[in-house]
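Human: Respectfully, please carefully check these tokens:
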Amino acid sequence: MDIFKIIYSSAIEAFLTVGVFVSITLFLIGLIDYKFNGIIISHLEKKGSHQIILASLLGLIPGCGGAIIMVPLYVLGKVSFGALVAAFITTMGDAAFIILVGAPKIYFWILLISGFTGITSGILIDKFNIGKNIKVNLNQNKLEEINRSSEIKDHHHKHFAHNHDDIIDKVLHRSHTSTFIFNFTHNIWYKIFWGLVILSIPLAIEHLAHGHHHSHEEHSIFEIVGFLGTFLCIAYTIISRKFTQGSNFDKVESKLNSIKETIIHSAEETAFLITWVFVAFFLYGIGIQLIGGEEKLLEIISQNGFLVVIIATAFGLIPGCGPQILIASLYLADIVPFSALAANAICNDGDALFPLLALNKKSALMVTIYNVIPALIVGGILYFLELHKIFY
């Protein structure tokens, strides 16, 4: 087994067949977020029958931002538990960008299914007063710890769904990044990244149009750019995760306040996505070699049936977008069925679970439970339809 060859080819494919197109899509959606998210949030804060629908629409926006914004709204009592669950069900996290670029028609189906599931679940939860008795209580030790650390970071931008220096602000903005790392991310990295993306667009389009048929010269350039792009993304992701301590909410909020921050964080999110796509491609390449080919892998999956849907749902329980990007990449490689992708999309919360865990673990647990139930039901129905060739 030539591991270096698998690493090399996985890196090239991750950047030029997925990364370039995802980066453009992510940036455009970031601009839409910047323009319109504040409007949706202001309407959400007004109690009414449309709250669950608006929460679901917020969750359907690709990425984790919509669902993350729902957390302080719920904690402060501005939205219901049903609205929170609806947003968490409809969000697909950063995995949405992978499906949106790789299979737009499938992404449309995911939107319809998760949107309907989120709205229905939210309405039922509120109708039967489920979650009404879940109280958000931060113990005194937690409050003292937060108060001590709140002076670390000062915010000079508009806050969404909470006020400056309130308890929510102190929990969600407890972070500090070194001056060197801040200068690197805000003055150097994003310029290098977007410069490389712009230069790579013609190569990516050429590759998409003609597959793997390139001249020797074109092939060499393609490989160098692809490998370099993925290598830089992996390096940046490691640096940002290890040395940048900003919360997910902090990043979402800064994007909603500034076009420059949207450009910067779009580069950061794309680097993270490309890193996980590379991991997915690499693991797939290793797996194929170990099992004995793609046909053998497909045979194993077809023999295990609904177990694949359960496993995909279990992956959705893992906080963060990385594992969900793996499932999305495996779907695009025709390894997991649509029913598994849909179940994972409904169950996963992306990065939105992290701020909720920080504020109230009981609420986070309850949201997770009410994500799993519809995920297994919808996944089971879709699997039955696939099995009988009614939907596939």
Observations:
- The first helix runs from residue 3 to 44.
- The two ends are 34 Å apart (CA to CA).
- The CA atoms of residues 117 and 374 lie 7 Å apart.
- Confidence is low (pLDDT under 50) at residues 138-157, 159-173.
